[in-house]
Design a protein that fits this description.
By secondary structure, the protein is mainly α. Helices cover 76% and strands 0% of the residues. α2 packs antiparallel against α3, α4 packs parallel to α6 and α7 runs antiparallel to α8.
Length: 165
């Protein structure tokens, strides 16, 4: 077997960082955080100063590994590197919301609204973080599995009924 050919083939199958990043973001959008994490980590390893790679790596770590502090640190680092990039602020807010830090998420959204003005994406994110319906079974805690599962079901039903209008 020709070893040089094998090495060339291995190089061809390795994706460039930008492709890894794009595919990772797409996987994240489609709710595959574990798979996205692998791609985004590869992109980050190739350029550890790229604010986009840093921010989206943090955003993928939150749902994939539930390492809230690490995820928020990465997103905050990206915001510090490029404070004028609205998506980095939104990624940070999403990490805080996933971590259950709603007040911190709302504070960051208010800060971003002050920085960027009345941006529709920020307003929509604020509404999403703000709104929480009461638990269906109030005698159990909000985090009880029955409340979580029934809440997901209720959410799907509301989505279906709003689509049928």
């Amino acid at each position: 077997m020709n070893l040089g050919f094998a090495m060339e083939t291995a190089k061809d199958t390795a994706l460039d960082p930008l492709t890894e990043f794009r595919e990772g973001v797409e996987l994240l959008k489609n709710e595959y955080p574990q798979k996205a994490l692998v791609r985004l980590r590869r992109a980050f390893e190739s350029d550890k100063q790229n604010a986009y790679y840093i921010s989206f790596l943090g955003l993928s770590i939150a749902p994939a590994q539930r390492k809230w502090d690490q995820a928020s640190e990465l997103c905050e680092m990206a915001v510090q590197l490029k404070p004028k990039e609205i998506k980095f602020h939104m990624n940070l807010v999403e990490v805080y919301a996933l971590a259950g830090r709603r007040e911190k998420a709302l504070d960051k959204l208010d800060y971003a609204l002050g920085l960027f003005g009345d941006d529709a994406r920020l307003k929509q994110a604020r509404c999403k973080v703000e709104k929480r319906r009461a638990p269906l079974l109030p005698f159990f805690g909000r985090s009880h599995f029955l409340n979580r599962e029934l809440g997901k079901l209720r959410h799907r039903l509301f989505q279906l009924t709003s689509l049928g209008r």
